[in-house]
């Protein structure tokens, strides 16, 4: 009997967590339309990004899915159009693991779009290993943070000219396990897949904080969010099949469905309740307190400067 006690305890804990997550899951109740609005969603071809794209397209927005795979994007666009009836859904190729691709994407946006109302930095990946990109940056850190950082900086002028506009960064509660070591921003001294993911989300939070300070008074807001535990593809790159299956099994049981997980992102994109709120962290359509590191203004300023140096771009200060 004693042999079974740990297993029974574990199962009970998992069930309690599951019930709690379902009962506290927030829902965006705003019926605000998005007709005439232009939205960019990175990683919008699957998971939370796709569900968010469907919701905003249904509200009438022009939705631009920014992702690497043309095939997956085409399939996603077909699904969105079929479900919403909105044909104003498009794909622009973007590989966050290449800063050249980020710059090319932004150049294309400036050539084709007169406005940008909402930028959603949703794309993320886990388990990418310790390799570097052609830009000399750790691949996981670039895909999850440095790429979105450059993308956002390059699109800020268009967001300013389209104000009121919103920037939304999809973070994670995993940020609480991140470390702030300015000698290891690029994971060159030590790393693990877990630390890469946690640090990238912590950095996104700090980027949001500093961005809100820099954009203060011009009607461009920046907020971040934890979507909740969900059945996402973020762990598909974990190479150890046993660990990957264990993680997927637990996540799939505990998860919100993708529609539930997209609700806070939709809320931040459309709700008039947050029109004038910036620099905050949300979960379940409610403002929450992130880690103490995520609220450190001096760390946010220093990280911003270091990030500008690493991506070789300085956001003009007007």
From TrEMBL:
InterPro entries membership: NAD(P)-bd_dom_sf, Sc_DH/Rdtase_CS, SDR_fam
The keyword Oxidoreductase is annotated on this UniProt entry: yes
Keyword Ribonucleoprotein: no
Alphabetical list of Pfam families matching this protein: adh_short (PF00106)
Keywords from the named record: Oxidoreductase
MF terms in GO: oxidoreductase activity
Coiled coil: none
Annotated Gene3D superfamilies: NAD(P)-binding Rossmann-like Domain
Name this protein carries in UniProt: Retinol dehydrogenase 13
């Amino acid at each position: 009997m004693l042999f079974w006690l740990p297993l029974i305890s574990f199962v009970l804990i998992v069930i309690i967590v599951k019930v709690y997550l379902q009962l506290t899951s927030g829902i965006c109740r705003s019926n605000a339309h998005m007709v005439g609005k232009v939205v960019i969603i990175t990683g919008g071809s699957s998971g939370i990004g796709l569900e968010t794209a469907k919701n905003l397209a249904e509200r009438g927005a022009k939705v631009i899915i920014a992702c690497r795979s043309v095939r997956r994007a085409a399939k996603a666009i077909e699904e969105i159009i079929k479900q919403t009836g909105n044909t104003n859904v498009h794909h622009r190729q973007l590989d966050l693991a290449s800063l050249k691709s980020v710059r090319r994407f932004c150049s294309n946006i400036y050539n084709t779009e007169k406005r940008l109302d909402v930028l959603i930095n949703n794309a993320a990946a886990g388990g990418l290993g310790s390799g570097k990109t052609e830009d000399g940056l750790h691949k996981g850190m670039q895909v999850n943070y440095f790429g979105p950082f450059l993308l956002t900086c390059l699109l800020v002028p268009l967001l300013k000219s389209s104000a009121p506009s919103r920037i939304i960064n999809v973070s994670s509660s995993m940020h609480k396990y991140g470390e702030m070591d300015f000698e290891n921003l690029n994971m060159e001294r030590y790393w693990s897949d877990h630390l890469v993911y946690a640090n990238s989300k912590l950095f996104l939070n700090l980027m949001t904080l500093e961005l809100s300070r820099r954009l203060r008074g011009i009607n461009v807001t920046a907020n971040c969010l934890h979507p909740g535990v969900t059945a996402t593809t973020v762990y598909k790159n974990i190479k150890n099949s046993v660990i990957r299956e264990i993680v997927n099994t637990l996540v799939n049981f505990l998860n919100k469905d993708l529609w539930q997980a997209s609700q806070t992102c939709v809320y931040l994109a459309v709700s008039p309740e947050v029109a004038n709120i910036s620099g905050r962290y949300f979960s379940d359509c409610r403002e929450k307190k992130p880690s103490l590191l995520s609220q450190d203004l001096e760390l946010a300023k220093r990280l911003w400067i270091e990030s500008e140096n690493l991506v070789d771009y300085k956001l003009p200060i007007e």
